[in-house]
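Thread: quick sanity check before group meeting

JM: Hey all, I'm pulling together slides for Thursday and realized we never actually wrote out the predicted structure for the chain we discussed last week. Dropping the sequence here so it's in one place. If anyone has concerns about the input, flag it before I start.
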Amino acid sequence: MTSRLERITEQRLDSLTRIRARDIDPYPHSYHPSHTVREAITLFEQQGESSQDISLAGRIMSKRSMGKMSFLDIRDSSGKIQFSLRYDLLGRERYEFLQDIDIGDIIGAEGKLFRTKAGELTLGVSDFAMLCKSLRPLPEKWHGLADVEKRYRQRYLDLISNEESKSIFVLRSKIIAAIRSFLDKQGFMEVETPVLQPQAGGAPARPFITHHHALDEDLYLRIALELHLKRLVVGGFDKVYEMGHAFRNEGISVRHNPEFTLLECYQAYSDYNDMMRLVEEMFSYVARDVLGGTKLTYNGNTIDFSLPWQRLYLCGAIKEYCGIDFEDYPDAASLRTRMAELDMDVDPTKGRGRLIDELISTFVEPNLVQPTFLLDYPVEMSPLAKRKRGNDRLVERFEGFVAGMETANAFTELNDPLEQRERFRQQLKEQVAHEEVEIADEDFLQALEYGMPPTGGLGMGIDRLVMLLTNQQSIREVILFPQLKTKPEL
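JM (edit): ok, ran it. Output follows.
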C-alpha cells in the first residue's frame, strides 16, 4: 500500500517532469534578489507605494488560489511576506505554471510593493522564477513541528517550520559575538589550540579516543582547553581566550551533550577574584547587548545579571542546606557514612571530592537561583588550582551558578611545577576504580618549569549561557545538531 508521503513525492516528481518539459530549469545556478524581506518591509515603510520594481526570493510556506488570483506566503532568513499573482498580469501560460508550484518550493519574484485592503504588505508579482523544486512536503502544521525528537534529528525542518527555534539560534550567534566583543575590549587575544591531543587533560572526564594511522598512535578529542592555553601564558601571551568545542564521553541529559561549546580564558598577574569580576561584567555585558537589559525570565524566575553577584563559601553553603561540614570529614569513608545518614545512595567507588560534588548538586545547586559564586573548594577537587591563602586544605576556586545550573568554573591557577607534579601523582595514587582523574601531562609540567606568572583562569559553558538567555530548559534546544542515538531511518 502506497503511503501518503510516497503519493505526494510521486505527484511532485510529476510536477518536476512538467516543469522540465516547459524547458525550465527547476534548479538554476543562482538568483540575485534586490532585497531581503526585512529590507523590503523597511523600504515600504520609508517610501510607501512606488513605481520601483524589487525582487525577492524565499520558500513558499502557504498557497491560496482564488480563480484568477493566487497568494503565496514567502519566507526568507529575515522574515515573511505575501506574494500576489494575477492572471491578467502574468498571462495564461505563466499563471498556469503555478499549478506545478507547491508549498516548500523556493521561488524568486519581481514586482511592486503595495498594501492589500486587509492591510497586509504584498509584492504584486510581475514575473517569477522557480529556484528549487521541493520533492518532500513540509510538516502539515508548518507553524510548528510537534515531534521533539524529529526536530532535533531533522533540524532543517525545525528551522523551516518553527520561527521560535530559528530565533534561538539567531540569538545564540549574537551571544557568541557579544562574548568575543567583550573579551576583545578587555585586551584578550583569541587563539586556537589542538582538538586532537596525545593526552586528554584539563578536567576529570572520560575522553573519546581515535587512532591516527599515519602516526600509528591513539589520540584523544580534547575534554578541556586549559593546558594548551596555559602553555601560551608561559610563552608570554598575558591575556588569551578560546571558544571551541570540547568532547566528553559521558552521559547525555537536558544539561549535558557529549560535544559542547566551551569558553576558556586566562589572564596573567590575576587571581580568582579578578575572574569573578570578569564573569560578572561579561554576563551583564552580554545580557544588555542581546536582550537590552540585565534582567531576564528563566523557568518562571526573574534573573538579574546586574553587579555584584552573591558570594557564598562552599563549606558554609553545604552546611546550611544539608547540615554537613565537610571539613569534619577528612576522608571519603567518614563522609560517605555521614551522607548515608541523609538517606543518600552513595557510590562506594567515589572519592571525597566526588562525594562533596554530589552534596553540591543535590543540596546546594537547586537553591542558587540568582547569580551566585561558590568559593573555595577542597584541594582534592581541584588539582590545577592554587591553595587558598590561610587554609591549605582548600583552593582558590569558584563556580558560578544561575537558576540552579553551573555556568562558570575558575581558579587562581597553580603555577608551582613541583606541587603540580605532586598533585597529579597523589591523585593517581588515590584513584578509586571507575573514577576519572586529571591526567598528568608531562609537556605541560615541563612548560610550568619554565615559569608561568600568577594567573587567573576561567572556563564557561556557552550552551548553558544560551539556555539562560533564551529561556530554554534543555541543552538540545540551543545546539543545532545535538547528539542522538542513530536510527536506521528518519
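AS: nice. The radius of gyration is 29 Å. The mean pLDDT is 93.
JM: adding both to the slides.
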